[in-house]
Design a protein that fits this description.
Low-confidence stretches: none
Strand order of the largest sheet: 1-2-3-5-7-10
Helix content: 40-55%
Order of helices and strands: EEHEEHEEHEEHHEHEHHHH
Structural class: alpha/beta
Largest sheet: 6 strands, mixed
Distance between the termini: 40 Å
Radius of gyration: 18 Å
Number of helices: 10
Length: 259
């Protein structure tokens, strides 16, 4: 794998590190594909008992998609293909037979939030912050599947709260609402605890864990997403999306028109 995502296997733990600290570990399109490829590899490797996901450095787990990647968008199909690509990767992570743990320090927003949300367990450092600030940045929307994921994690009222206000959830609140299982004082203690937790999970009966994951997946599948093509195109093909992208890249406030 390229240097933007590091992957190593040790003592039954597959460790995935998002490695763009200079960009707050924001994902390029290729990084999403690489994450999907790693999940596929791990699925076939019987030596791996658990996957541990984390970000390089203490400032970010992953700050969503690198917004400069959207500059290539020119057609409706580009928007639909993007959401379809992300969904394939998230499903590979979410539906893996392996237990997954996210160790989160710093910013965990947008696509980074949905990646963490697809993991089975989440622990964080005291500086962890979560959110989906698309109403302040790009003016786009989530796929229906990602709305379902967020509702399953937070409930509809909190999903509206964080998207309507673009606020970030601090670690203490995240722990209170069940988004985090534990909060550690700093990055170093987070990494130590993440390794301990991964070792504990790896020692459990594999079929028990697998059956539990599959049972919960089947329950969530009853909230099947409906068609979302119209919503995606309404946002991604809008003047507001172009305005939001330009404003973000040029570090200025966007001027929304609702068109």
């Amino acid at each position: 794998m390229s240097g933007d995502i590091l992957y190593e296997i040790q003592d039954g733990i597959g460790r995935i590190t998002f490695n763009r600290p200079q960009a707050r570990n924001a994902f390029t399109f290729r990084m999403y594909e690489q994450l999907g490829e790693i999940c596929e590899q791990a699925e076939k490797d019987s030596s791996i008992k658990v996957l541990l996901l984390t970000g390089a450095g203490e400032k970010a787990f992953a700050a969503g998609t690198d917004i400069s990647e959207f500059k290539v968008f020119s057609t409706a199909q580009d928007a639909l293909d993007y959401e379809s690509r992300i969904e394939r990767v998230l499903c590979a992570l979410e539906n893996s037979r392996l237990p997954t743990i996210a160790a989160i320090a710093g910013v965990c927003t947008g696509g980074g939030f949905t990646i963490a949300g697809c993991c089975d367990l989440r622990i964080g450092a005291a500086n962890a912050r979560f959110g989906v600030p698309i109403g302040r940045t790009l003016g786009n929307c989530l796929s229906m599947a990602n709305y379902v994921r967020l509702v399953a994690l937070l409930g509809p009222a909190r999903v509206k709260d964080i998207i309507f206000t673009s606020r970030l959830i601090e670690a203490e609140e995240a722990c209170k609402i069940g988004l985090l299982g534990e909060v550690l004082p700093d990055y170093e203690s987070l990494q130590r605890r993440a390794n301990e937790l991964a070792q504990t999970v790896a020692s459990q009966a594999p079929l028990t864990l697998r059956a539990t994951k599959e049972a919960l997946r089947r329950i969530k599948e009853r909230m099947n997403p409906q068609e979302d093509r119209d919503l995606i195109l309404m946002c991604y093909m809008s003047s507001d999306f172009r305005e939001g992208m330009d404003a973000f890249l040029n570090k200025r406030p966007p001027k929304w028109t609702g068109t």
